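Chapter summary example: a protein plus iron/sulfur cluster.
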Amino acid sequence: MSSSSLSDAASLLHWYDRHRRDLPWRAPPGIPPDPYRVWLSEIMLQQTTAAAVVPYFARFIERFPSFAALAAVPEAEVLAAWAGLGYYARARNLHRTARIVAAQGLPRTPEALARLPGIGTYTAAAIAAIAFGVPVVPVDGNVVRVLARRHAITESLPGALALIHSAAQALAADPSVASRAGDFAQALFDLGATICRPAEPGCVLCPWTRACRARAAGIAASLPRKAPKPVRPHRYGAHFWLADDAGNVLLRRRPASGLLGGMTELPGTAWRSDPWPIAEALKAAPMKATWHPLGEVRHGFTHFTLSLSVFAAHVRHIRADGFLCPAAALADEALPSVMRKCVRLAEQASPGRARPGMLLP
Ligand code: SF4
């Protein structure tokens, strides 16, 4: 049968068999998928690209090769292994889910999966389809883009989502998906990631090039349309690098709940909407010392942009709230990306004391 006479679902599967991406969490063709690897990769891939996830996935699989192994370690160990991937609530939920699944097993339906911590509608559908072959089509950002274009849905998001979900359901009902639900979900992801890219869709290489209505109308790159974004607010803070003669740095643990909950940080001020005048910021310094301004770190969170002033001081002995960490062991701490930026700034400013290069990139 020529590919032009196949249904959308069948032609996409045909394309996938020749062009699938080789990713470390994917089972090779003909090998049943490992639900633990599927679940772990789907949680890691939330808000993160496959390229960024690959090294973390390899480390996790080596250190925590099963639900039971992950459930058996303390949360701090999971947070430390996750450090740098961002969105740390995911790591805490990952650990909570591992403990539930180690005791009760992993459910197989999207509805039951969505009741586990950190698993929303999309992730539940992805795990059910890929790990257990349930014929559902998970709709993530890639799939939204591909289906909006295939059907030339010109309404702006989020209003367009109802039509996009209908298109996904129609695909899930195609007989060729019934026996290959996992492959089909991954084929859609691959099409979005490698061909139907956001800015430059590679329509000539696409298995849907003849059927695609946006390509025919010459509007593919402009879809999906989005409602204008609200301006992201800006917040400000100051953090303090305090080192001692023994080569330690002062750290503290953030409260267990809330943004970056349970992660490690350099001591600092609250993050607020007004910039901190230096004199006011220094009142939050962990102890009296000669503080030097090192510069500013900027970091983008989902809902706001953060600017942090970083100050450094060196004392003989640290006497302040928090805990001491040898500078050479900072890489093992659960420092979120924004704090790693602060530490790197301190390393660059005082290379003899801070031992540059000790942190992970
Ligand atoms: S033909 Fe082009 S726009 Fe349409 S689905 Fe394929 S890559 Fe996307």
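Key point: The chain has two domains: 3-222, 234-354.
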